Amino acid sequence: MQYLDVNVWLVGDILLKADRMSMANSLELRVPFLDKEVFKVASRIPRKLRVNKENTKFAMRKAAMKHLPDATAQKKKLGFPVPIRVWMREEKYYNIIKAAFTSKTAKQFFNTGVLMKFLDDHFKGKRDNNRKIWTVFVFLIWYDIYFNGGSHEPGDMPVIK
């Protein structure tokens, strides 16, 4: 798994996205754990000290415990989540998505009754439909921009007309 992560997923996905996002915002991104010397040392650490049944980065966490509080050293891996599921439960964004889900474009491709059921159930906290909602919403925005001539300013929450 680590071999695939390093040679496929990291290079073709994570680092590519990080590079594009940092360059788009005039930032210089550093990935210190991918330094050749650090990587060479890390790759020699026995597997049982890298990952075990209890946690990931076992040796690094043990080292961190000497200098950081236990809660920090043992904290679960988080990534970079965006609170889309929470935003979709706010009335402002619910209404924006509702407008998209009931648009002429949505009716062209989807059963809008089903879309609204996903949205309403999510909004009311009955189900977590955020991935389904987001996927369809992004498709509708994309279609609006590239096929309906819609214009959306970067940073604005787009509204499908």
Protein described:
With 161 residues, the chain is mostly helical. The protein has helices at residues 2-24, 36-43, 47-50, 58-64, 70-73, 84-87, 91-101, 104-109, 112-123, 130-147. The longest helix is centred in the N-terminal third of the chain and has 23 residues, at 2-24. 9% of the residues are buried.
Quick gist of this model?
This protein has 161 residues and is an all-alpha fold.
Rg measurement, Å: 22 Å
Total E-strand runs: 0
Percentage of β-strand residues: under 5%
How many H/I helical runs?
Answer: 10
Termini gap:
45 Å
Helix content: 55-70%
Report the principal-axis shape.
Answer: elongated
Which consecutive residue ranges, at least 5 long each, have pLDDT under 50? none
Q: Describe the largest sheet.
A: none
On the 0-100 scale, what is the average pLDDT? 88
Q: Can you write the helix and strand succession as a string?
A: HHHHHHHHHH
Structural class: mainly alpha
Characteristics of this structure?
single chain; 161 residues; mainly alpha; 10 helices; 60% helix; 0% strand
SSE blueprint:
Blueprint: H1 2-24, H2 36-43, H3 47-50, H4 58-64, H5 70-73, H6 84-87, H7 91-101, H8 104-109, H9 112-123, H10 130-147
